[in-house]
Amino acid sequence: MNKEFRLPDVGEGLTEAEIVSWKVKPGDAVTVNQVLVDIETAKAVVELPSPWAGVVSSLLVEEGTTVGVGIPIISISVDEPSSPAPNGSPAPEKRQPVLVGYGVKPGTTARRPRKKGPTHPASYPKTPSAPPAAAPPAETPAPPVVPPPRTAEKPPRALAKPPVRKLARDLGVDLTSISGTGPQGSVTRDDVQRAAAGAGTTIRSESPGLEAHDERIAIRGVRKHTAAAMVSSAFTAPHVTEFLQVDVTETMAAVRRLRELPEFADVKVSPLLFVARALLTAVGRHPLVNSSWDEAAQEIVVKHQVNLGVAVASDRGLLVPNVKSAQALSTAELAAALDSLSGTARAGKATPADLSGGTITITNVGVFGVDAGTPILTPGEAAILAFGQVRDLPWVVDGALAVRKVTTLSLSFDHRIVDGELGSAVLRDVGSMLEDPVRMLAWT
């Protein structure tokens, strides 16, 4: 029998997802938990496994299509247990083996009905009017129905990998207009980029008022989710941002020293590691900053577990994976977790679990050459710390000018939970520990 696999809810609040790439095709035999398809949700690219063993009958949704939760996306012919014939003997009908798995029963498969376009009276041949006639005898066959004219066949689908298709959509390039230079004539990223450069990245629609080279980018997936979350956060939580310039010369020296230790030989050690450890220590001293506002219950929920989020810029947009129970990790374990999670997010492999449940966030704007900013809170969190670039600046040390390594810290917080005194204390503590990393040992 044919079973339709419907798009499940694989994350918190998922309502839709985009079909990125199918891993099977009609006629393939599949086993339970075999990956059928990659889908892109608002948070991550997720692999969907098969709930049944059987043979793929048809793919009901094309790659690049966004569908809602509960919509059938694939049909699988599933083996049924054989039942005895009425006389007690085995049923004579049996499936014939094919190259893989078993063929489907004759007559059990059904094609999806084609979408019919509007029917116009002009599409049918006109017949002269005639007076009403008596109905023909029952045995007289009915006159043949003249079918509507066939619509034009769908243009062939260009051969390209899912990331290339995404790039083409983002740049507004029609893949069918490109002669691919890849294997078997497939379209490559270079082909798309050359086409975009040659065409001036033209738009695909002809909306009035747009210039010839305007570009339209579909709002979907992570970008759509991030935009909605940021708007919700900005207009729900009253934001306050404070800034602090810090001499991090000693921290930079500690980074170099840590890289030489054997415990850190296989992990990435960066100034961000010290910022993360300083923020975790500050949370331990000021637990209220690691909390959320429950509007429905009219309560402040103080979290005793610190799931430390780190904002990551990826090809899919801004992602904020978080290190679970970061406060319980050693510095070496924290370094490994930050490195692994950031790399996974940039590669588009972060799971919904990686991206959910954060309690406080760090965003490293310094990697973009920026000194400071006013970060927007991650929804449901009370604070976010921005770490600016480290620069050589003149600084007063022991009453004399010196060139020191200086950065700017920016702390945004929800003023319903964190007042100015608490926000200032947290920011000051983080700055003090980055000025003198030994202070972390005293406060831990």
What is the C-alpha radius of gyration, as a whole number of Å?
Answer: 31 Å
Distance between the termini: 62 Å
Task: Return the string of H and E elements.
Answer: EEEEEEEEHHHEHHEEEEEEHEEEEHH
Total individual domains: 3
Percentage of residues assigned to helices: 10-25%
Number of strands: 19
Please state the overall shape, judged from the principal axes of the Cα atoms.
elongated
Q: Which fold name corresponds to the CATH topology of the largest domain?
A: Chloramphenicol Acetyltransferase
In percent, how much strand structure appears in the residues? 15-25%
> Strand pairing plus helix content: what structural class?
alpha+beta
Structure description:
- The protein has helices spanning 162-171, 189-199, 221-236, 249-259, 271-285, 331-346, 420-435, 438-443, and strands at 2-6, 16-22, 29-30, 35-40, 45-49, 54-59, 66-68, 72-78, 239-247, 291-294, 299-302, 308-310, 312-314, 317-319, 322-323, 360-363, 383-387, 391-397, 400-414.
- It is of the alpha+beta class.
- The chain folds into 3 domains: 2-78, OB fold (Dihydrolipoamide Acetyltransferase, E2P) (Beta Barrel), CATH 2.40.50.100; 162-218, no CATH class; 234-443, 2-Layer Sandwich (Chloramphenicol Acetyltransferase).
- The longest helix is centred in the middle third of the chain and has 16 residues, at 221-236.
- It is elongated.
- The model is unreliable at 88-138, 150-154 and 199-208 (pLDDT under 50).
